[in-house]
């Protein structure tokens, strides 16, 4: 696997190294040895699938606090998405900045999102599937959100939002206290 760093410390773009032959190719998509060698998280608590009917479906920006804070490794297995990590770690020099990239079924790329970054995506095609690994179990009480269009962060989305959950649409403006930012201190 090839690991490319991004403008946000701890966010990596991962590309498989394809070993091609007459049948097609073989590639690793996850490897505890390779991840551990780079100091990346190897624990997997959940593997999730997110199916989206419409182009322009937006989910996010989600993260968990405290011991529930989680690493995500995201791949689009059908169609295409624009996947975004937003740095909200108070000790990070890139606090408030986001990194977005296109993940498609064809490019096989993955985005590694560390603890203390909110995550979300918008679908760029109809009928998409997103498969992602998460290092800590879903803990609703520790889940927090940042609205996709919160002016505090100004995330640039490459498509118009056509579908969003009522919860994500109604997420209030960012607030350090209710967003639990102090509980992300020390992460970086
Ligand atoms: C995320 C999650 C949700 N659920 C339930 C809660 C609810 O009834 C239903 C749908 O939940 P949500 O609306 O929160 O699903 P969704 O908006 O797809 O949430 C996901 O969004 C992306 C961007 C992420 O980064 C994920 O970590 C996760 O937060 O599934 C679980 O049982 N386990 C889980 O791990």
UniProtKB/TrEMBL annotation:
CDD domains per record: cupin_RmlC (cd00438)
UniProt entry tagged with the keyword S-adenosyl-L-methionine: no
InterPro entries: RmlC-like, RmlC-like_jellyroll, RmlC_Cupin_sf
Annotated site (Participates in a stacking interaction with the thymidine ring of dTDP-4-oxo-6-deoxyglucose): 138
Record pathway: Carbohydrate biosynthesis; dTDP-L-rhamnose biosynthesis
Known catalytic reactions: dTDP-4-dehydro-6-deoxy-alpha-D-glucose = dTDP-4-dehydro-beta-L-rhamnose
Active site annotation, chain numbering: 62, 132
Keyword terms, alphabetized: Isomerase
Stored PANTHER family: DTDP-6-DEOXY-D-GLUCOSE-3,5 EPIMERASE, THYMIDINE DIPHOSPHO-4-KETO-RHAMNOSE 3,5-EPIMERASE
Record function comment: Catalyzes the epimerization of the C3' and C5'positions of dTDP-6-deoxy-D-xylo-4-hexulose, forming dTDP-6-deoxy-L-lyxo-4-hexulose.
Designated name of the protein: dTDP-4-dehydrorhamnose 3,5-epimerase
Organism listed in the record: Occallatibacter riparius
């Amino acid at each position: 696997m090839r690991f490319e760093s991004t403008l946000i410390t701890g966010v990596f773009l991962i590309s498989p190294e394809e070993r091609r032959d007459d049948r097609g190719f073989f590639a690793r998509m996850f490897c505890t040895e390779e991840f551990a060698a780079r100091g990346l998280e190897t624990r997997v608590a959940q593997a999730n699938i997110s199916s989206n009917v419409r182009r322009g479906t937006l989910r996010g920006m989600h993260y968990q606090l405290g011991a529930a804070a989680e690493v995500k490794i995201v791949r689009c297995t059908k169609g295409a998405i624009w996947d975004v990590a937003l740095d909200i770690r108070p000790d990070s020099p890139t606090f408030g900045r986001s990194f977005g990239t296109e993940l498609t079924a064809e490019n096989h790329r993955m985005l590694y999102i560390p603890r203390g970054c909110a995550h979300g995506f918008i679908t760029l095609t109809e009928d998409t599937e997103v498969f992602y690994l998460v290092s800590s179990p879903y803990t609703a009480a520790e889940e927090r959100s940042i609205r996709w269009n919160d002016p505090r962060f100004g995330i640039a989305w490459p498509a118009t939002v056509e579908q969003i959950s009522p919860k994500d649409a109604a997420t209030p403006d960012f607030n350090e206290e209710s967003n639990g930012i102090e509980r992300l201190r020390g992460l970086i």
